[in-house]
Amino acid sequence: MKLNRTYIFIAISSIALLIVLIIQVNWIFETARIKEELFNEKANMVLSRTAETLRSDKEACMNVEVGCIKDNVEVCLNLDNNAVHNIDSILRHYMKLYNFHIDYSFELIKPGAAKAKNVWGLSGNVYKTPLEEAVSKSGLELKLIFPDKKQFIIAEMGTQFIGSVILILIVLILFWRTILSLTKEKKILEHTTDFLNNMTHEFKTPLTNIALAGKMIVKDLNIGREDKIKHYSGIILEENEKLRLHVEQMLSMTALERGEIPLQRTELDMHQIIRDSLNSMNIQIENKQGELKLKLNAENVVVFGDNAHFTNAICNLIDNAIKYSKMRPEILIQTFNSGENLIIVVSDKGIGIEKEHQKMVFDKFFRVPTGDVHNVKGFGLGLAYIKKIIELHEGSIELVSAKEEGTTFTITLANA
To answer: Which alpha helices (H) appear in 57-114, and where do they start and end?
Structure first.
C-alpha cells in the first residue's frame, strides 16, 4: 500500500521538530548545570576566604569558640553581637568581591552537626567549611545557606532561558498551525478534484444530449417530420436549462461568498415560501412515487429576508431528501415557534449520513459517499449554499442524522 506523501512529510517533520526540541531542552539543562557549577564555585570561594580571614583573627576565634561551648545544642546560639557582626561583615565583603548578590544566612555548627537534618528543608543550597587551627579544640564548622539558590540560577540564565522557552512555544504553535493548514489544503484539494470530476460528468450528459438532438434535427429536416423536430428541440431546451442552472448555482455561490449579490429583504410568509417550493418539486416527488407531509403549526411565520434565496434553500433541502432516498421518498416538513424564532424542520427517511461526515456536509464541494447509490448528481454546493443563505439572514441550521435512518435539518430564523 502506497503511503500518502502528506502524512510522510508530517511524520518526518514531527520527528525533526522533536529532535530539535530535545536538543533545545537539553541545552537549557546544560546551561543550568554550568550556572550551578559557577554558583558552587563562588559559594565555596566566599566560604573558604571567610574561614581564612576568621582564622587569622585569633581573638575573634576565641570569642566564637567560648560562645559556642556555652551552648548545649548543635548550632551555636550564644554568640555576642560583635562576633555575629564580624562574621557577617567578612561574608558580605567576599560576596561583593566575587560579585555574588544573593540573600544568605550562616550558622556555626558543633561536631556531629553534619548528620543533623537541614532546618531549611532544602538540598544543594548549604555549604560548610571547618574552622581549624585557632578553633580546633571544638572542631567548629561555618555553614553558609542560600535559600533562593534555584531562583538565583534561573535569574542568572535570564534572557537565554526566557528566550529559549518563548522560541520553543513559537515553534510548536507555528508547526501546529502549519500542519492544520496543510491538512485543510489537502482536503480542499480533494474536494476540488471531486467537484471538477462531478462537473465534468454533469456537463457532459446535457452537452451529449444536445449534440445528439441537433444531429437528429438535421437528419429529420430532410425527412420533414415536424413532430420529431419539436421533440428534439424540446430536449435541447431542457438540457440547455440544466446547464444554465448548473452554471448559475456555481456563480451564485461564489458571488455570495464575495458579498457581490445584495439580498432583497422583504417581509416573507415562510409557509407560502414552503408551498411555492413544493410546487416546483412536486413533479420529482410524484415521479418517484414519494410521500410528502406538511405540519405547518407555526403561528408567527413572517421573517425578513430574500424571497428567491429562501425558496432556493427550501428547494435544495427537498431535492436532497429526494436524491438520497433509496426507495420511495418520505419527506416531512414541520414549522413551529420557539420564543421569537421560527423553526423549520425538513426530515426524510433516506440513507442518512454517517457521524464522521456530518461536520463536513456544509463544506463547499463536499459530497457524502453514497455507497451503492451511484445515481446521485450534484456539485456538493447545495448545503454550503443553504448554510450561507441562512447565516446571511442571521439564522442557523443544524443537522441530525443516522445511517439508514434518515436525516433531519432544523432551520432557526428570527421572526420579523
So the answer is: 58-69, 81-97
- What is the SS3 assignment for 125? coil
CA triple 200-206-208, angle to 5 deg: 90
Query: Which CATH architecture is the domain 265-414 placed in?
Result: 2-Layer Sandwich (3.30)
Phi-psi region of 261 (alpha: psi -120 to 50; beta: other; left: phi over 0): beta
Query: Could you give the count of Cα atoms lying within 13 Å of 111 in the half-sphere of its Cβ?
Result: 8
Task: Count Cβ neighbours within 10 Å for each residue of 365-398 and write b for 16 or more, e otherwise.
Answer: bbbbeeeeeeeeebbbbbbbbbbbbbebbebebe
Report the helix count and the strand count for the chain, using DSSP H and E: 9, 10
Domain boundaries, the chain: 5-112+120-147, 156-258, 265-414
Above 70 in pLDDT, residue 341?
A: yes
Q: Each residue of 298-322: pLDDT tens digit?
A: 999 999 998 888 888 888 888 888 8
pLDDT > 90? residue 281: no
SS3 label, residue 327: coil
- Which of the following CATH numbers is that of domain 156-258: 3.20.20.150, 3.10.580.10, 3.20.20.240, 1.10.287.130? 1.10.287.130
409 pLDDT more than 90: yes
Give the three-class secondary structure for 367. coil
Per-residue pLDDT at 197: 64
